[in-house]
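# step 3/5: fold
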Amino acid sequence: MERNEVQKSVGLLGAGSIGEHYLANLVKHYGDVAVFDTDAGRVEAASVAGGRVVESAKILAAECDVVLVSLPNPPAVRAAFKGGDGLLAGLRPGALVVDTSTVSPEVNREMSALVQGLGGGYLDAPVSGGQPAEAGVEGAKAATMTFMVGGGRSDFDRAQELFDVLGSHAMLLGPSGSGTVVKLISNLCSGIHLLIAAEAFALGAACGFSTEELSKVFRQTDAKSYIMTDYLIPRILAHNTVPGFTVDLQVKDHRLAQELAHDVKVPLPFNALAIQTWERLRAQNRGQHDIADSSFFIAEQAGQSLHK
C-alpha cells in the first residue's frame, strides 16, 4: 500500500491491552513505529514487539506526523497530553492526533482545541470490536475494529489509511466529540443487553434449563442479540472470564453515558441499575474480569450455577 506523505512517521501513545495489538499491526504495516507508555512492563513488551520506545509523550509527538492514542480514562488522557513532557509540548505543526480512548465529549473538545491551537489536527475515534465474538482486545488483535469518529473531514481523510490498517470500519459522525457520544451510546446498549441476558440465563438455570439449551432457542426468537449469541454465550460455555473488555472499563463507560445524559436532560434509569450491578462485581474484586463474568456473578447471587 502506497503511503500518504503525512503518514511516514507514526507513533503510539499507550501500549496497554488494546494498544499492544495496535502496535503489532502498525509495525507490520509501517515498520518503524515510535511508542511511549508509563508502565515499564508494557515498554519492555513494546520493544520486543518491534516498537521503537521513546522516553516521553513529548518526544513521541516531536518525532511523529501521526500519533495514535490508546489510554483508559479521562485523567490518563489529560496527563499524557499536558505538562512539560506531554504530547502537546512536542507536537509538530500539521501533525494529526487520533485518540481512540473512550473518555467524554468534553475531554475530546478540550484536547481538540489545544491540538488545533498548535497547528495540528485531532480526531476522537473510540472503538468497538467490530466482528462477532471480538471485543476490544480480540478486535484490536485481528484488526477488525470499528472506529466512531468525531472531527473534520480533511483530518478523517488523512487518517483513513491508519483506520484501514487497524480496523474494518470507520465512520465520521460529526464534529469533535461526536465519535465519543456514539461510542457511549453503543456501550450503554451493549452493557444493558448483556446484563439482561445474564439474568435470563440465571433464571433459566433455576428453572432447570442450561445455557446451551436456552441459547439454541434464543437464536431463533426475539431474545437474540449479538452481545448474547456471539459474545456472552461462547464465554459462558467456556467459563472464560479472561478480559476482552473488563468490568472496570464497562462501568467507566456507563458512568460517562450517565454524565452525558445528565447534560442533555435524558433520564437513563436502566443505565443507573446497570452501574449498580457492575459496581457490585467490582466490590468483589472482579473489576479486571471480562464483562461476561456478570453472568456467573448474577447466577451466584441467585444460588445457581451456569454449568450443571
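# step 4/5: annotate
The CA atoms of residues 251 and 278 lie 6 Å apart.
# step 5/5: archive (pending)
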